[in-house]
Each structure stands twice: as C-alpha cells, then as structure tokens.
Amino acid sequence: MKIFSSAQLQKADQLTVEREPIASIDLMERAATTVFQEIHQRLQGAPIPIKIFCGIGNNGGDGLVIARKLIEHGYHVTTYIVNYSDRRSKDFLINYDRIKNVTKDWPILIKGKNDFPTLTRNDFIVDAMFGLGLNRPVSGWTKDLIEHINAAEAFTLSIDIPSGLFSDQALAEEHAAIQADFTLTFQSLKTSFLLPQSEAYVGDFQIVDIGLDRDFLQTAIVHKFFITREEVIKRYKPRNKFSHKGMYGHVAIIGGSLGKMGSIVLATKASLVGGAGLATAFVPQCGISILQTALPEAMVVAVASHDHLKADQKTMDVLSDLQPTTVCFGMGTGQEQATIDTFHHILKNTKNAMVIDADGINILAAYPIMLKDIPAKSVLTPHPKELERLIGSWVDDFDKLKKTKEFSKLHDLVVLIKGAHTVVVDGDDLYFNSTGNPGMATAGSGDVLAGIISSLIAQDYISKDAAIIAVYLHGKAGDFAADKVSMQGVMASHLVEYLGEAILDLFKPQEPKT
Ligand SMILES: NC(=O)C1=CN([C@@H]2O[C@H](COP(=O)(O)OP(=O)(O)OC[C@H]3O[C@@H](n4cnc5c(N)ncnc54)[C@H](OP(=O)(O)O)[C@@H]3O)[C@@H](O)[C@H]2O)[C@H](O)CC1
Ligand SMILES: [K+]
Q1: Which-ligand-closest: CA of 180?
Q2: Which residues are CB-contacts of 321 (< 8 A; sequence separation ≥ 6)?
Q3: pTM value?
Q4: Where's the YjeF C-terminal domain (predicted)?
Q5: Does the C-beta of 135 come closer than 6 Å to ligand 1?
Q6: For the segment 377-394, what is each residue's pLDDT rounded down to a tens digit?
Q7: N or C: which end of the chain has fewer CB within 10 A?
Q8: In the chain, helix, strand, coil percent, each to 5?
Q9: Which domains, from first to last, does the chain contain?
Q10: CB of residue 187 inside a 6 A radius of ligand 1
C-alpha cells in the first residue's frame, strides 16, 4: 500500500475537486461524514460528553461537520473553535455557519488560556485543530491547550493526524502534539505514524477512504509503502505440483559459539519452516549434538575448533562443495579474530545475496573495509543499536531513514530497521511492516527472522521481496502466538511454531470489515 506525502495528498485533494468534479466544501462534507459514520458505529448513540476542538483551517472544517452530524444524531456535543489565527479557511467559514443551523448558537471560542474548558477522563475528545496544514511547531497558548487536553487523559480521537504532529518530518521533544488514542486518517497513512518517535501521539489508526482521485493515487510515484497482506500475496510464489526439494534452495546458517547455539537452532528451523528445501547449520564443534538433537531435519557441518567459529581451509572447502543457495551469517558468533577471518573469507567467496545478522553486523561496523566484499543485494538485519554502530547516530527518525537509505545505496544492500514497524530499506524505497506486537521483543526473535529471509532468498525471491514477505510473516506469526499465549508469553520458538499459520492466513478469506 502506498504511503503518500502530505504534499501529494494536498495535490490529490485539489485534483479530485477539478476532475470529479466536486466542490471542495462537498469533498469536506464527504470526508467528514465518513469519519462521523465511523464514530457513530462505535458509540452507538452513547450519551457521553463529546468535546470537539476545531482549528480554523480545513481540519477544523472537518471537525465542524463531524460536530454537526453528531448533534443531528442526538449526541451531547460541545464544539470549541481554537482561534489560533484569523485566517479562517473558506470551507471552515461555510461550516461555521452551517453548525449554527443545528445548534442555534455559535461554537465556543477559545482565544487564550482563560477560555480553556474543564476536561475530565470521562469526556470523549475529538481533535480537529491542525491537519496537514501544520507548517511549524505549535506554540503559545495553543501549545498549552494541547498539553491541557493531554493532561485530561480522556479518550482522544484525532482527525487526519494528531494536532501538532507533522506528517513528513520529526517533532522535537520540546514541542507538543495531541496524544491520540485513535486516529482516523484520510486516504493514506502518514509516515510519522510508523516511527518510534511518534509513539506517544498516534495510538491506533485507521485509514478512511474519502474517494480522492483514483488515477492520481494509482500513478503517483511514492517511495514509501505499508506492507499489508496484499503486498505479500502479490509477491508470493505458489508451489508447482511437480516440484522437489532441490527446487527450493539450500540455506547454510553459519554461526554460534559455546552457550549460544540456540540462535542457530532457531534460525535453521525457521529456514526450513519457511520453505527451504535443505538447511545446513555450519557451527563450531560444541554445536553438533545440540543441532542434531534439536533439529533432525537439518544437516550439520562443524569446523575443527570447539568453542568458536574458526574455519580452516578444509571446512571452507566443505562449505563451497555444499553449494548453498543462500548463506546466513552472524547469530551467536561472537567476535574472536578467527571468527572475523572466517567471516571475511565467506564474504569474499560468496556470490549470491547473503543474510547478515547480529555479530556479523557488529564485525562489519568494526571493520568497514569488509563492506565492499559483501555480495550485492545482501540483507542486513540490525536492531537499532547494531544499526547505529553501522551508520552512525541520527538526529531523529527521519534522519535515521535518510542515513539508512544512503548506506543501502552506497553498498547496494537491503537493510532492515527493526522495530514496531520494521522498515525494509532498499535504496530509496522504504517498506514499513504492518504486523507484529511488543511480545516479539524477546530473545531469539531476530534469529527467526534472519532464518525466514534466508529461506525465501533460497527459494528464489529477490532479496527485497524476501525481506518484505519475511517481516510480514514473522510479525503475523507473532500476532497468532500472542493470541494464544499472551504477549508476555511469546518466545522465539513460538514464532517458528506459528509461521505456518501465518502463511496459511495469506490465503484465507478475510472477514468483511464491520
Ligand atoms: N480540501 C478539502 O476539501 C479537504 C481537506 N481535508 C482536511 O484539510 C486538512 C488540511 O487543511 P488546511 O486548511 O490546509 O490546514 P490545517 O487545518 O491543518 O491548518 C490550518 C492553518 O493553520 C496554520 N498553521 C500551521 N501551523 C501553525 C502553527 N504551528 N500555529 C498556528 N497556525 C498554524 C496554517 O496557516 P498559516 O497561514 O498560518 O501558515 C494552516 O493553513 C487536512 O488535514 C484534512 O483534515 C481533508 O483532506 C478532506 C478534504
Ligand atoms: K487533527
């Protein structure tokens, strides 16, 4: 699913008005009516106090339409105009008049701190102060009002975007934005919703289709996407009836050290459950019986050394004789010099795209000279600390995206930014994951992900698609697991266990949205 920038959405608004054609006031009525219907469906006429805060632009105009519709349906609504400027928009003014037809009175004007209403936890607040027109941080008494609303801890629904939050740039900590519990957003997600810095503001969100110009939406070029089920299905390759295991690739998972063999078990198992035809774990001696006991389906090759990976020529020859389709390196290896040398040797002798995880990434960060030896389009799967070691620190989340893109382009790699909405970075293109839950922040979760990505590359998916499908399925498996064992109860093994269910779910008929 495409993620549009605020400039593109404003363009879409304008083109819809011209091409449909539809008067902008009618488009506002249509958009806000859709929001009203969503609210009405949830509240079902509940007699709770609803307080709607409207700005003076079109976001405020939306708020006025919602207020009018709610009043017409018998809700207890108080409407406030947050008068932060005298430059009221045309469509705001029309709706300012229209609401008077149902209330017989003007909404309450807020012009400063003295006008702030008392709010309680029992209020239902609708925030329609600023939308995509926000062009600078909110300041003065308007900022105080945002803080006043947040302090009430009442359920807050934001229209289009939590007021004060930017769509395409970061909000510094000292600035204020509405801490929404829920955001109903028009036509497209806003990038900031998916970034950790916005966590306090966005809450849950839902996209409402307001019928903007289809042609524009389909043809506009974007570099940001949301990884939905449809994005995965369109990339998924069904299996042929006459296929055999040799057609689904051979994954070599290389890593492990004394006390850290579990990571290899998880990754190797995930690669098999993910569909690879064959998997070989390539480990120090200490790993042989662990692997063979835990995972009879996998082959095991051990280097001569006992505790760490220290490959001699003989074992390297064994690896090249195996001719794995995909090599995955890094989990649990540690950073002994012999291991670093082994890694460097593997990099230089591998042609196909690899998957590099954990200590593999730490070694690359410590020895950037090795970056040039990584096969093109390899996938790096750092968690935030590992990413920082790799690309340096960032000022904010948008800067992190920019620096990761530069790194990806410079080295021709696919890089993951792991987190609540894991991002797959492929050059200029960013793919944000939609699945997963905080229960997945658990030991070994990343090993499973690296195993799935390796598995898909071995099955002939291009690295970017392998990463996109893998993060989605990994998250979905986590969601299924959390449903069964609770978020706290999720362990990495559950992610492997529920991976099959996540794959099956791709092809299950979905329940219609209520
Ligand atoms: N066009 C349509 O029919 C639709 C519009 N939709 C809704 O519109 C908003 C975007 O509305 P817009 O009027 O462009 O802007 P806002 O309502 O977000 O903001 C109003 C004005 O506020 C000023 N501004 C910006 N930042 C600040 C600030 N920090 N402090 C004070 N004032 C600020 C700015 O004007 P300036 O001249 O002062 O710069 C804004 O113009 C969109 O989000 C939707 O909710 C829907 O898309 C439906 C169709
Ligand atoms: K808003």
Answers
A1: 2
A2: none
A3: 0.96
A4: 228-506
A5: yes
A6: 999 999 999 999 999 999
A7: C
A8: 45, 15, 40
A9: 6-221 (3.40.50.10260), 245-506 (3.40.1190.20)
A10: no
